[in-house]
Amino acid sequence: MVFAAFRSIGAYIPPKIMTNLDFEKILDTSDEWITKRTGIKERRIAQKNEGSSDLGFKASQIAIQRANIDKNDIDLVICATVTPDYLCMPSTACLIASKLGLEPVQAFDISAACTGFVYAVSVAKAFIESGMKKNVLIVGAEKYTSILDYTDRGTCFIFGDGAGAAIISASDNKSEAIIDVNCSSDGNYSDLIQTIGGGSLHPCSQEVLDQKLACIRMKGNETFKLAVKTLSADVKVMMKKHNLINSDINHFIPHQANYRIIKAVGDMLGFTKEQTVVTVDRYGNTSAASIPMAMNYAYEQGKINSGDTVLFDAFGAGLTWGSALFPFSPKK
Ligand SMILES: CC(C)(COP(=O)(O)OP(=O)(O)OC[C@H]1O[C@@H](n2cnc3c(N)ncnc32)[C@H](O)[C@@H]1OP(=O)(O)O)[C@@H](O)C(=O)NCCC(=O)NCCS
Predict the structure, then answer these.
(1) Angle at which helices 290-300 and 116-129 pack, to 10 degrees?
(2) Residues with beta carbon inside 6 Å of ligand 1?
(3) 215 carries an active-site annotation
């Protein structure tokens, strides 16, 4: 039997910082309001001439190097993004594979918004366990600043840019195996977080441009309540299914959307501050990149060790949600 092992993590954090004080200069808002409502203090901004593939490429280089594999042994590249370099084609995964200089390889994107990276873990696991692939590069890469309306004070301050990546490889050692991934969706809530314009229903037009319909629109308050409910329910199911108690989890890594959501979910589930990884204060919400960037942050702080049990918990537009449970299993 072949198992899927989570071998490495990497991230690219764009150096340019936008603080809450910078928002005070362009919006009717304050550092105090943003900090109190979200816990966000600053977020990162990619350069004008960078696309999500550039961010994903840099994160991937680190993940590949840390996995200690030859890049040409990668036989599948998956990029989770809702801010692809190009709206329809080519996929961002194809661009990342090309920038990495990989030999021709299967590559495609996943669109599951903030849950995208967890969806990518589930697809990588399935490809490996079926025997079809051996080394999968998964990437969460977002340039959210490309879809923000900087006059929308209820939304624009939340998001930032960045990328995270991981290598998932075949292993014959069951103790290294990703234990479980559970992903789901409910399109009945599709209007909570949307980019209305630019797609097949409302193709690009003067109206789309004038009304900024290609920018993200979010019903923040309704989203907040559903996020808390869904994130906690999802983890309860996963923990019960595997007979786990809180102390079995070394690192709880929730989607980084809002510190109040993270705190409410953590409290409901009974995870301690030490178990819960928080980066929303420094990176804001980077959608599909948020979980791998958070994991990379904890890893670089020296907190994640070989064999530690990690639990991802994500929620996003769609609505989509998902959780993943695995031991961190770098190659010995
Ligand atoms: C966006 C969010 C921070 C707003 O916080 P909130 O407590 O829900 O605030 P509300 O939208 O109810 O607005 C409360 C008041 O603050 C005001 N307000 C909104 N944005 C503001 C800002 N940036 N600065 C100052 N005031 C603001 C509103 O106009 C409203 O004023 P009113 O009471 O006079 O009408 C919060 O809803 C949130 O984080 N939602 C979840 C977002 C999320 O997780 N999205 C991604 C999911 S993947």
Answers:
(1) 80
(2) 29, 33, 37-38, 114, 153-154, 157, 218, 220-221, 223-224, 227, 257-258, 261, 285, 315-316
(3) no
**Ligand 1 center to 82 CA (angstroms):** 22
Instruction: Say yes or no to pLDDT of 332 above 90.
Output: no
Could you tell me the pLDDT band of residue 331, with boundaries at 50, 70 and 90? confident
CA gyration radius, the chain: 19
* pLDDT > 90? residue 104: yes
Which atom, in ligand 1's list, is nearest to the CA of 258? Answer: 39
Residue of 20, 79, 94, 114 marked active site: 114
Q: Structural domain boundaries of the chain?
A: 1-332
**pTM exceeds cut of 0.85:** yes
User: In ligand 1, which atom is closest to the CA atom of 37?
Assistant: 3
221: annotated active-site residue: no
- Give, in words, the CATH class of 1-332: alpha beta
Instruction: For residue 165, give Cα distances in angstroms to 90, 106, 219, 223.
Output: 20, 17, 29, 27
The DSSP 8-state label assigned to residue 284 in this structure reads -
Taking only the tens place, the pLDDT of each residue in 108-142 is 999 999 999 999 999 999 999 999 999 999 999 99
CA angle 11, 136, 233 (to 5 degrees): 70
What is the model's pLDDT at position 72? 95
